[in-house]
Write the structure tokens for this entry.
Amino acid sequence: MTEITAKPERTFGLIVGIERYQNSTWNVKGGGPVNDALKFAEWLCYKRGVPQENIRLCLSPVEENQELVRQCQLPVAGATLPNLDDIINNFLLRQSGDLLFIFWAGHGLITSERDRRLLCADATYQNWQNIDLNTLLQLLNSDWFEIRNHICLLDACANCYLDLPKRPTHLGGKIFNSGKPRQDSQQFILLATRDGEKAKVSPQKTGYFSQAVREALEQAPAEIFPPNMKDVAEQVKQRLEGLEKKQLPTYWYYRSWNGDKEEQHFNPFDIPHNIPPSNAKIFVGREKQLEQLHQLLHEKGIGAITDVTGEGGVGKTELAIRYSLENLENYDGGCCWLNVVKATEIGTQLTEFGRIHFPNFNPSGLSLDGQIQYCWKNWRSGKVLLVFDNVTDWEEIKDYLPPHGSQFKVLITTRQQTLPCSSLALGELSPDAALELLKELLGEERVKQDPESAKILCKHVGYIPFGIYQIAAIARKPRGVLC
């Protein structure tokens, strides 16, 4: 489905920024959400031409941001539940248009049923005033609502309600009724946080997610309205991946216009793993094999990296490390690396990984077989990559393999040529790739001084990566030469 188009004069906006709550212990110290909401409203009005009268800006600033609100040229209302309810039911519900933008920055939570709730400024411990996001989206998507298309950008926390202290026994809040689903209504939704996480604010008093969204929108072509939201979502992902671990929202999500596509992108730093550090400073000549390996695991669920030379040094473990790191976000259930030294230690490594990374994971008191079965049944949800490194005998790992067709994918590295699973055979590098590796290790100018000797030496070690590293190590020594 192609991206929708909308006329600015037929576009509406509900912009919410809450950093001060009636329960002051929930306040966002130093602010952030109000500033983000103001900047988004200004982009919508002054840079995309949406009329002021079509925008409802609801803010609740902390004391130090009161001046920001006073300087705003747009009308501002309080971000209380009665105000927001009135805007939705008595303003937006009576409009006809092409597009509704909803931007919300502030606290949120999820219920035990995984319903998202957005806390309003008048929320207290006794009365958690909130909006049920799920039913709001259903209302917007129903025949009661005459603005056909919706873009929702939510920089809100998703704290688990059951984990929160001093919670009321009944959450309450605003649950919206709706009519029949419309066939011509489309929604694009982008959330900053996964279930149970907090939306994070930078020292510059802006939400990391909000800033990434704002920068992506600013760079979108002015002549296209609304911006291509799939492009925006991809830019947001790239911008967040470029930040340090402590700055990253752990999850972002989008549902495409046609509603049939949902994507979850976990921050790789938040995914549990014990991938060992790479011993290779340079990785060249195996790009095609990385793609083949991913396809193999996707189709078969289990695959091996083998060594056609039988001598070692072809880079089996390095390829497994590189694959695991580059594809970590595809394994949101984690990557567990198992060093196959003794068969009895595999089970210990597996259960210890669970104890370290998963809450309430305790297979103590069970037999070894019972502990393994416990792992398969109680692992974190999501796709999992298990790496059995340096397998010398299939028999020593077969009892530790997960059930076929489960959430677990299995990658094996071994010198064995025959295994009861599909494999990717590694051998020597191509002559060009071997020479490229040597250039990367020693520097291109060094190899250019004696290219023929470099080619001869690469051939002498059989174009094997380990041999190329040895050549480079010798050549880097004082008075070391390539011949």
